[in-house]
């Protein structure tokens, strides 16, 4: 079965912030090369669109979002590449590859912003400190939706249908957490490029959440 998710048309500005979705990929080596290329393209895109007149500060919502979302995305890239390599369902493999490429490119953009803002990739501040009461959203030190070490190990060891179901369940939770973070920065920033990327994340990940739910239903598993 091929999963298709209908969504309302997005503006060209938002579409440009998110690489095309639902592609088909070849061998795992091509995906790894694509992920590396996605990071490079994200770095270049970040250089092209970073505002030069004003820069967010060390403790700004923009900097906190870029740092925390880069870490959040890195886990999705890891799980997406696993799905592309191991999933038994072709739609799950496709979705995993798409997630890895999309989120790696977005990491590149956010890391470029931090460099252009003359800020480091990490901070001494706690995770989620840029959000009002953000620390309350941490669970065992993990940001919203992130998989635990035990869950990631379980995913690495799973095979067949069990792998597919676990991947979809973990990614659904992961995306809901990411959407929450992106929606929060939209409330806090007036930076046009941060808003553009964050809104693109919200739109794209909502579509993928619907795809996860359809695939779980197809596989006879709960969301």
Explain briefly what this protein structure is.
This protein is mainly α and 223 residues long.
* Number of E-type strands: 0
Structural class: mainly alpha
Mean pLDDT score, rounded? 85
Q: Approximately what portion of the residues adopt beta-strand conformation?
A: under 5%
Q: Provide the gyration radius in Å.
A: 17 Å
Assign a percent range to the helix content.
55-70%
Biggest sheet character: none
The span between the termini is 18 Å
What is the 3D shape?
A: elongated
What's the helix count? 7
Low-confidence stretches: 1-27
User: What's the helix-strand series?
Assistant: HHHHHHH
Describe the model.
With 223 residues, the chain is mainly α. It is 65% helix and 0% strand. It contains 7 helices and no strands. It has helices at 12-17, 28-49, 61-86, 90-116, 149-157, 160-188, 192-218. The longest helix has 29 residues, at 160-188.
Output the keywords.
single chain, 223 residues, mainly alpha, elongated
SSE arrangement:
Layout: H1 12-17, H2 28-49, H3 61-86, H4 90-116, H5 149-157, H6 160-188, H7 192-218
Helix pairs in contact: 2-3, 2-4, 3-4, 3-6, 5-6, 6-7
């Amino acid at each position: 079965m091929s999963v298709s998710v209908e969504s309302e048309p997005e503006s060209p500005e938002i579409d440009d912030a998110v690489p095309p979705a639902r592609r088909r990929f070849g061998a795992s080596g091509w995906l790894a090369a694509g992920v590396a290329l996605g990071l490079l393209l994200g770095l270049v895109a970040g250089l092209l669109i970073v505002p030069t007149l004003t820069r967010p500060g060390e403790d700004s919502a923009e900097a906190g979002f870029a740092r925390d979302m880069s870490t959040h995305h890195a886990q999705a890239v890891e799980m997406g590449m696993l799905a592309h390599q191991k999933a038994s369902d072709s739609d799950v493999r496709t979705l995993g590859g798409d997630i890895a490429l999309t989120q790696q490119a977005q990491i590149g953009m956010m890391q470029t912003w931090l460099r252009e803002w003359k800020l480091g990739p990490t901070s001494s501040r706690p995770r989620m400190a840029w959000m009002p009461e953000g620390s309350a959203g941490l669970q065992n030190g993990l940001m919203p939706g992130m998989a635990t070490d035990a869950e990631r190990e379980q995913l690495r060891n799973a095979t067949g249908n069990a792998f597919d179901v676990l991947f979809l369940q973990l990614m659904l939770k992961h995306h809901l957490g990411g959407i929450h973070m992106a929606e929060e920065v939209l409330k806090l920033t007036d930076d046009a490029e941060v808003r553009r990327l964050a809104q693109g994340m919200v739109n794209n990940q909502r579509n993928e959440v619907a795809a996860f739910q359809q695939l779980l239903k197809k596989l006879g598993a709960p969301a």
